[in-house]
Specification:
The complex is a heterodimer of chains A (113) and B (116).
Chain A lengths: L2 E3 L4 E5 L4 E3 L2 E3 L5 E7 L5 E7 L5 E3 L5 E5 L4 E6 L8 E8 L7 E2 L3 E6 L1
Parallel strand pairs in A: 2-12
Antiparallel strand pairs in A: 1-4, 3-9, 5-6, 5-10, 7-8, 8-9, 10-11, 10-12
Chain B lengths: L4 E3 L2 E4 L5 E6 L6 E8 L3 E9 L2 E5 L6 E5 L5 E5 L8 E8 L11 E2 L3 E5 L1
Parallel strand pairs in B: 2-11
Antiparallel strand pairs in B: 1-3, 3-8, 4-5, 4-9, 5-6, 7-8, 9-10, 9-11
The chains are: A mainly beta (113), B mainly beta (116).
Chain lengths: 113, 116
């Protein structure tokens, strides 16, 4: 069965500082990996995705993520956080066509001024 | 704006009642997914439809059912509601069953259900 673990429930970061959110997945085949962001009272917005190829993927809002097969990880990073990045972030894994996405428990990011 | 429309935005009802949540996928998307987000369970996959047919089933209770209509909109029916059914229900859509290499799931803003 596929699963996703986001070890950090909350992260507090100062505005302008760097941010890294951890994601570990379990999947029997080649995974499709995603990061979504959920702002208060909003739906889930796709930040970036990994299907194959270059293991460093760029997304929207200045985010990037690196796929490390050996570590079963897909960590999300941003070099300099803005106050508007305060939100909850979800990592998700899926597989071949027809499979659902499985989400991690989420990491809530608070941004200090 | 993801292009996925969910109605209503909020729903308050009593235990034992039945409600219907509606989802209109993005134009051209054939797959619709329903997810439940609650504080204790996180984001849980409920069910997926593809071009009118059920494609995958997750942790969906027997009291819950869904369907996708010929115009591709979908409805999630929740019956005999319990307090624990209070949650945010998301609909997502994609062009294919998973979405293919360049089309992951696009989510609506959800329907917040409160059961009192």
């Amino acid at each position: 069965a596929q699963s996703v673990t986001q070890p950090d429930i909350h992260i507090t970061v100062s505005e302008g500082a760097s941010l890294e959110l951890r994601c570990n997945y379990s999947y029997g085949a080649t995974p499709y990996l995603f990061w979504y962001v959920q702002s208060p009272c909003q739906g889930l917005q796709l930040l970036l995705k990994y299907f194959s190829g270059d293991t460093l993927v760029q997304g929207i809002k200045g985010f990037e993520a690196e796929f490390k097969r050996s570590q079963s990880s897909f960590n999300l990073r941003k070099p300099s956080v803005h106050w508007s990045d305060a939100a909850e972030y979800f990592c998700a894994v899926g597989g071949a066509a027809g499979n659902k996405l499985t989400f991690g428990g989420g990491t809530r990011v608070l941004v200090k001024p | 704006d993801s292009g996925v429309t969910q109605t209503p935005k909020h729903l308050i009802t009593a235990t034992g009642q039945r409600v219907t949540l509606r989802c209109s996928p993005r134009s051209g998307d054939l797959s619709v997914y329903w997810y439940q987000q609650s504080l204790d369970q996180g984001l849980q996959f409920l069910i997926q439809y593809y071009n009118g047919e059920e494609r995958a089933k997750g942790n969906i209770l027997e009291r819950f059912s869904a369907q996708q209509f010929p115009d591709l909109h979908s409805e999630l029916n929740l019956s005999s509601l319990e307090l624990g059914d209070s949650a945010l229900y998301f609909c997502a859509s994609s062009p294919r069953s998973l979405g293919g290499r360049s089309s992951p799931l696009h989510f609506g803003n959800g329907t917040r259900l409160t059961v009192t």
